[in-house]
Amino acid sequence: MPTSLDFPTLSLSTSVLVLALAAAMLYVRATRRTYPGFDHWVAGALFAGLASLLGVFRGELPSLVSAVIGNTLASLGIALVASGLERFLERPGRSWPQLLGVGATLATSVAFTWWWPSLRARVATGEAIYLVQVSHCLWLVARGIAPALGGRNRLLELVLGLQAGWGAVRVALVTLGDGSLGPLLDGDFARDLTFLLYPTTTAVLTFGLTVLDLQRVEADLRASVEEVRTLRGIIPICATCKKVREGADWTRIDAYVQQHTEAQFSHGICPECLDQLYPGGI
Q: What is the percentage of the chain residues whose pLDDT exceeds 90?
């Protein structure tokens, strides 16, 4: 029985799965209501799938192609997830931290593949940068989803927390290890576990982002139902001027109805008022 996972086969299955999920997201984008940031998630899934696809050719393609471009695509994928979350949560657009992470991944991958070849250094820096990017996504989900949608998304919290936690362990193992990182496909348990966790969490993350968009649809639906309910209860209204009370404010009844429904008002004069205002006719 082999002691190490078949990384090319696992990479191929991962890329097919993630790209299929990206295609499903495109279908949702074309047929259902989506919110700002969804397009970024679709692009992020596509880049993650392409990054896994390059893993199929590890050992056949030059490291400058397979490792450097693969690491950069994976970094770009998670950067797009973060950027999409910021837009989804209607936060001010700040793309430079994500671009900085992608640029740092590219620079360190090239440096430790070409100029100062070191698999240990390349893995450590790549994992550290990816850890920062994933932690940023986790912070956005944990701090922003509940206030915006009235409920948490525990699936995203779980998968991002798992990615961040294992990323921290991976950095520690590579940094504090004895230096014998070994070939990419040897029987190292930590590396094999990484090969299992990355495709699993990437697929679940892609699915969870689609669920997040549906969660916002449900939140908007609940808000619409609550607005309708405000017109079905007891509405305080002035017996003289017919204004409606909302808290401490009084609003004209036509303005109140327009604010809480899709109705629009046009103005005219009824026969009784016409006789009072113009007794002799117009």
A: 37
Tokens 């949702």 belong to residue: 28
Tokens of 204: 């679940």
Q: What backbone torsions phi and psi does residue 188 show, to the nearest 5 degrees?
A: -65, 125
Measured CA to CA, the distance from residue 54 to residue 44 in angstroms comes to 16
In angstroms, the Cα distances linking 5 to 8, 75, 166 are 9, 23, 18
What distance in Å separates the CA atoms of residue 263 and residue 65, rounded to the nearest whole number?
Answer: 60
What's the pTM value of the predicted model, to 2 decimals?
Answer: 0.76
Please tell me the predicted confidence (pLDDT) of residue 42: 96
In whole angstroms, give the CA distance from residue 122 to residue 116: 10
CA distance 263 to 257: 7
**Strand ranges for the chain from DSSP E:** 244-246, 249-251
Residue type at position 150: G
Task: Provide CB contacts within 8 A for 232, sequence distance 6+.
Answer: none
Q: Are 174 and 124 in contact (CB under 8 A)?
A: yes
Q: Decide which of 183 and 135 is more confident.
A: 135
**Torsion (CA) 129, 180, 185, 103 in degrees, nearest 10:** 20
- Give the single-character DSSP code of 237: B
Other Cβ atoms within 10 Å of 44 Cβ, number: 27
Structure tokens at 251: 């609003």
10 Å Cβ neighbour count for 68?
24
CA distance 91 to 79: 15
Tokens of 195: 């090969």
CA Rg, the chain, in Å?
Answer: 28
Q: Is the dihedral of CA 4, 175, 180, 51 positive or negative?
A: positive
Helix (H) or strand (E) holding 189: helix 189-230
Instruction: Please give the structure tokens belonging to residue 168.
Output: 């921290």
